Here is the input.
Amino acid sequence: MSTEENVSLQNLWNPKADKLFISNIPELKEEMLYAKNWIKSLDMNKVIMNIQDIEVYNEKNIKTRSPIVDLENFSESLSKGELIDKLNTISSFPKVERYHENGKLVSAEYYNKLIENCNIYGVMDTNNIKYGITLKKTVMRTFPTYDTVFNIGDNYEFDRFQETAVYPIEPLVILHKSVDNKWYLAQMYNYLAWIPEKDVAVCKKQELFDYHNTEDFIVTTGKRVFTNYNPLNEQLSEVKFDMGIKIPLVAINEIEEDIYGQSPTGNYVVKLPTRNKSGNVEFKLALIARNEEVSRGYLPYTRENILIHTFKFLGERYGWGGTFNSRDCASLIMDVYRTMGIVLPRNAEEQGEFAVGNFYEMSETMTIKDRERLLDNLKPGTPVYMSGHAMLYVGKEEGKYYIIHDFSGFYKPQQDGAAKYYRVREVMVSPLCIGLSEEGKTYIEGLYGARDFVLVE
Here is the structure.
């Protein structure tokens, strides 16, 4: 290898010397793309809440206006009116026009067919619930269909029937079934929508929560973790887990000499749900390599951990409602905090306005200077919110305030005085001075507040 080639390779792998770094985001420097740039004080690894306090915090979130639901104490049945109200909450005519992928306007006749499949006429006077558990990463939808619809102009990226992604081994309350028997109306801990029946195994309540509430577990801390390849059981082979998933471990006396033909040495032996021919759950053993990014139990709740794990998603493509095998702004926050055992609402508005914690309000009349003074008192790793968007404050450099967030884009003034929109569509660091609107409003002016997820009196 020539000296010139060697220098070129050194530049490629050395972040400080990388000539390939380009950005149209104002005031962004390459070193800002690394968590260590923002971890500047020793108190960043101070524990914010211990595990006992976090348990109390999660219980308080259930009891407040937060949309988090206690599935273990869910009603055994719903009246006709209660179930119809839930159906109407998620599956109703939109107030704005939608378009199919081919650009054709969605008709009332089409919506009527979807609503018919919601099986409203199948609602009984008393509707007994069932329990289930997800087998793999799947979806929750507005209607029981995989069909996609869009606003005008976003006909591939923002499917308006996509509510949220759902991760493996997620407990569910099953409320209803579609006419075509392919979808369940289900309640997970922070969302209600339609989920594919094939991705769910039905459980007995006691069996589900004995499994879910196990005290010996690992938590995924990488943005993606997989079980080992299994040639003998497809349901257990290379199951993908996103960040923040709690996976029960098998007791030592349950570990066999080999697991589907492989030695367990060098692996965590976990118990995962599979689905039998009747649609019911059967728990089986699977292997996750010990060198995967997992933690034995939850991570300590520290600002250092918040930043380190958020920055693992840097550069990941934005995925509305969990599409594109990724996540959106609010699920980025939610997934990171789950590694530390903190249960949050799904959507940005619910996190910012309803979650338990210290709230730092930024009213519409607050000046930029006053907003900056408030930010000066925030610690790195504090979530900040504007209407429909969740971000994570990371710190201040050279008089500018920075966030990391999963966002669509920003406006930037041009020489002719007009503002040009730049797409980002990824998890990225940006200053709060970037443009939020064509009229010149900035992100810092769009903030309505910040919230630390801690216990409050």
